């Protein structure tokens, strides 16, 4: 940027398409789904701008149709992991020196590719890989990913413009250097947008990245990679490797040039990664940045004044969209005794109308959970609730894994506010409700705050302004994303920066400037314009 101070396109949120009957987007996504379903593809590793195939492969299967194979992906051995590290490090210098507008142009181009020619493909791949309905795929793989890319470019330039004060004699400059080493991005199954954002946000800031997607998301990750390739991400800048997470991670985290971890996934895995980094601290050339957005036990608490239709809609969408597999999904609910009969009646009525099955049928509101491990775990909790004295399944409780990993939307009512499903992240379509006495509003807020180790998202429903204010204060540290009279899911880039504290993560707010700060190591440059020529100070006269 040595010949202009460029401004970038003003970002706006990508409009969500409706996919209503008769729309061109509906026809396009269903055609892409059909085509991809009937193909069998191979997803190689991507190292140094080259496809790398190994002897070791793993099948990719849609969760709603697990006997059907979409193809295989290749798994790295230690040899390919080392190759990815060497490649990234040799690409580092050139990429770090690439002018910011060139980096920005690549990722702005990626956003346009997803908005246009890749939209149907990335959504269809997300429907197949993660069993998202078309709406859930659209708000994730298309819109949120586009928003991440566009807003991050704007945030980068805002950050670059943040400069220290200078005087007539001294010009002070801050250079936002990329980290000296490589960034390791580990992504979860549940959002294609997160899979794209974790490597690309660090790369945008001039870092080289080794990206390991979740096994369960590789089928849509390969479309993300195709977008990066077509947008012009140079060889070695983003390398994608799949395989045994433990082996890959041990190799990467024990390397002296490891300089940052960009992780989203479960809390236990993240704690383990942090511990490994601590154990290796003497090996590193630089203190690594550690960013981890992790689990949640997200709540909805209703006041007796709550709007009932709004509350029930928030519960249905917040707890059961994408089968409760959003980190922000409502999974514990606190309802006052006085409104419980009406709330439960409306809730049961709405839940009975939910259709569940393949995402190929747009009438389905719910599909399957991600894999057999998740299915079996959810079944264990459902069965336990059926036999526990202090829990009662008041809706659903059925499951079937013959064709896909289907779990019915399930509501457990408990008399124990510390019942296991009020505290443990299950990551599935299971909501637990605790009914409290109306007079216990304030103690209930305390209970909400102290029940779980997590603090990701939460919502309060009330039409009483004093009660809302009490909740805002009492729940200050209970959620990093707090909602008033709305569901606790559906954060939008640029509007509700996302992340939680306590056991939910480092709260570096993905899709905000705060996150990008973690991928730079600023250098202060002071240039003296009035050069001192004499060491003596006036006080010495
Ligand atoms: P996961 O922890 O099982 O896997 C996440 C990633 O970590 C995957 O790539 C996986 O292969 C890898 N991994 C697993 N074990 C590992 C190990 N021992 N060493 C290194 N890497 C390992 O999580 P998931 O099931 O893919 O995603 C669901 C979890 O992610 C939930 O806990 C959810 O709350 C959380 N999540 C949080 C946010 C957020 O912003 N806070 C967003 C999305 C998901």
Write the SSE topology:
Elements: H1 24-38, E1 41-43, E2 45-47, E3 50-52, E4 57-60, E5 71-74, H2 78-97, H3 100-115, H4 119-130, H5 134-161, E6 170-178, E7 182-186, H6 192-204, E8 208-212, H7 218-231, E9 238-240, H8 245-253, E10 258-264, H9 267-279, E11 289-293, E12 298-302, H10 308-320, E13 330-336, H11 340-352, H12 372-387, E14 391-395, E15 399-400, E16 406-407, E17 410-414, H13 420-423, E18 430-436, H14 441-451, E19 454-455, E20 457-461, H15 465-474, E21 481-484, E22 501-502, H16 513-517, E23 520-528
Parallel strand pairs: 1-5, 7-8, 7-10, 8-9, 10-11, 12-13, 12-20, 13-18, 17-18, 20-21
Antiparallel strand pairs: 2-3, 4-5, 6-23, 14-17, 15-16, 19-22
Helix pairs in contact: 1-4, 2-8, 3-5, 3-7, 4-5, 4-7, 5-6, 10-11
Bound molecules: nicotinamide-adenine-dinucleotide.
Can you walk me through this structure?
By secondary structure, the protein is α/β, with parallel strands linked by helices. It has 16 helices and 23 strands. It has helices spanning 24-38, 78-97, 100-115, 119-130, 134-161, 192-204, 218-231, 245-253, 267-279, 308-320, 340-352, 372-387, 420-423, 441-451, 465-474, 513-517; strands at 41-43, 45-47, 50-52, 57-60, 71-74, 170-178, 182-186, 208-212, 238-240, 258-264, 289-293, 298-302, 330-336, 391-395, 399-400, 406-407, 410-414, 430-436, 454-455, 457-461, 481-484, 501-502, 520-528. The strands form seven sheets. Strands 14-17-18-13-12-20-21 form a seven-stranded mixed sheet, sandwiched between helices. Strands 9-8-7-10-11 form a five-stranded parallel sheet, sandwiched between helices. The radius of gyration is 25 Å and the shape is globular. The two termini are 47 Å apart. Bound molecules: nicotinamide-adenine-dinucleotide.
């Amino acid at each position: 940027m040595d010949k202009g101070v460029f401004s970038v396109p003003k970002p706006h949120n990508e409009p969500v398409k409706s996919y209503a009957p008769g729309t061109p987007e509906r026809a396009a996504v269903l055609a892409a789904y059909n085509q991809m379903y009937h193909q069998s593809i191979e997803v190689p590793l991507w190292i140094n701008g080259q496809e790398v195939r190994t002897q070791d492969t793993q099948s990719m299967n849609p969760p709603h149709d697990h006997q059907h194979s979409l193809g295989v992906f290749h798994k790295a051995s230690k040899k390919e992991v080392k190759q990815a590290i060497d490649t990234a490090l040799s690409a580092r210098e050139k990429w770090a020196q690439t002018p910011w507008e060139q980096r920005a142009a690549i990722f702005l181009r990626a956003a346009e590719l997803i908005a246009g020619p890749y939209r149907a493909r990335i959504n269809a791949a997300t429907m197949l890989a993660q069993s998202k309905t078309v709406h859930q795929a659209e708000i994730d793989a298309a819109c949120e990913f586009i928003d991440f890319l566009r807003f991050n470019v704007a945030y980068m330039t805002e950050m670059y413009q943040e400069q220290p004060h200078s005087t007539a004699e001294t010009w002070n400059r801050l250079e936002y250097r990329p980290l000296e080493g490589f960034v390791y991005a580990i992504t979860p199954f549940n959002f294609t947008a997160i899979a794209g954002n974790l490597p690309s946000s660090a790369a945008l800031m001039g870092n080289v990245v080794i990206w390991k997607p979740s096994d369960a998301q590789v089928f849509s990750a390969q479309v993300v990679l195709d977008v990066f390739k077509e947008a012009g991400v140079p060889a070695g800048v983003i390398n994608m490797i799949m395989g045994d997470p433990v082996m890959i991670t041990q190799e990467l985290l024990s390397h002296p040039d490891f300089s940052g971890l960009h992780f989203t996934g479960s809390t236990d895995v993240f704690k383990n990664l942090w511990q490994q980094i601590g154990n290796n601290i003497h090996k590193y050339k630089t203190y690594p940045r550690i960013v981890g957005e992790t689990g949640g036990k997200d709540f909805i608490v209703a006041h007796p004044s709550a709007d009932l239709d709004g509350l029930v809609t928030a519960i249905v969408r917040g707890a059961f969209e994408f089968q409760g597999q959003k980190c922000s999904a409502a999974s514990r609910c606190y309802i006052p005794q006085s409104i419980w009969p009406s709330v439960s009646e409306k809730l049961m009525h709405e839940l009975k109308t939910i259709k569940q099955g393949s995402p190929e049928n747009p009438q389905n509101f719910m599909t399957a959970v991600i894999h057999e491990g998740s299915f079996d775990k959810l079944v264990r909790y459902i069965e336990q609730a059926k036999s526990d004295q202090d829990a009662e399944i008041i809706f659903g409780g059925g499951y079937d894994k013959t064709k896909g990993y289907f779990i019915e939307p399930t509501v457990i009512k408990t008399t124990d506010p510390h019942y296991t499903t009020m505290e443990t992240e299950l990551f599935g379509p299971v909501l637990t409700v605790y009914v409290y006495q109306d007079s216990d509003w304030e103690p209930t807020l305390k209970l909400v705050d102290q029940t779980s180790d997590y603090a990701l998202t939460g919502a309060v429903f009330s039409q009483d302004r004093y009660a809302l204010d009490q909740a805002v204060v009492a729940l200050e540290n209970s959620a990093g994303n707090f909602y008033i009279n709305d569901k606790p899911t559906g954060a939008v880039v640029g509007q509700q920066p996302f992340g939680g504290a306590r056991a939910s993560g480092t709260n570096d707010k993905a899709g905000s400037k705060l996150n990008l700060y973690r991928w730079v190591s600023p250098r202060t440059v002071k240039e003296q314009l009035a050069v001192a020529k004499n060491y003596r100070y006036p006080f010495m006269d």
